[in-house]
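Box S2. Input/output pair 1.
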Amino acid sequence: MSQANIALSRPFALPRIGYRGAFVLLLTYAAVALALIFLLFPVFWMLSSSLKPQTEMFARRMTMLPIRWTLQNYLNVWNGTSFPLYFWNSFKVAALSTFFAVVVSMYAAYAIARIRFWGRGAFGLLL
């Protein structure tokens, strides 16, 4: 049998890792899942709270999901404050900063790649 036939007969063959390796892999995935839940829960809570009306948000009985869904909080922020101006200013600063960082990095990368200078190898290791 040729090498191509072996590859086609077992396209999704996993390496044999044994029981100990499978247990370590399972524990690793469980730890990553737990960390992901731990890190994403505040984002979920913030989004859920933003979709609740004021009375439900400050009620004694807290719920994970809103009983009554509303977008009024977003409308209040967008129309009742200077948030659109702040958002536009932040967008302009971020876009210009990104543009100038890419341009400067592009020229610096070209210089580092083409110009021979003392310590070039050590400098490359730092990057």
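Box S3. Input/output pair 2.
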Amino acid sequence: MREGLQAVGEGAVVRTDAGAVTCRVPLAWHGGRVYELRVWTEREGWWSAAVGDDSGGRGTIIGRIGVPDHWRRLGSVSTTRTEYRGRPLQRCDDLRACSILYREPTADGGRVQPERHESRVGPGTCEGSRVEAVAGGVRHAIGGLS
């Protein structure tokens, strides 16, 4: 059995937040570009993830996770999450508006589609965040809405 999480790249860290293990990599995001998260298995027991944009190239590897051999495949639940990770805010109005459109996750070149989805806004300090279903996905909007 190979278990563990390996962050890859300069500045990458592995963290445990509220019981969930995450792999964080600094990335210069650019507004208006389409980004894609790609997950694949390189060898038995190890999965890798990379994020890339529509400007071409292979993208940035986020990390690798080792799982028990008997897991074999991805689970049936996928989560998209949008959070503010900057300096503490003095006022909610200081949180700049941000809107992110997540397409529905697929697998095997689009042959595997989600059966259902649910959306919710978690607890937070600032009101005004929202999640709305759109054709083919969901939009998260935070900030600039109070």
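Caption for Box S3: The first strand starts at residue 4 and ends at 7. The chain has a mean pLDDT of 77.
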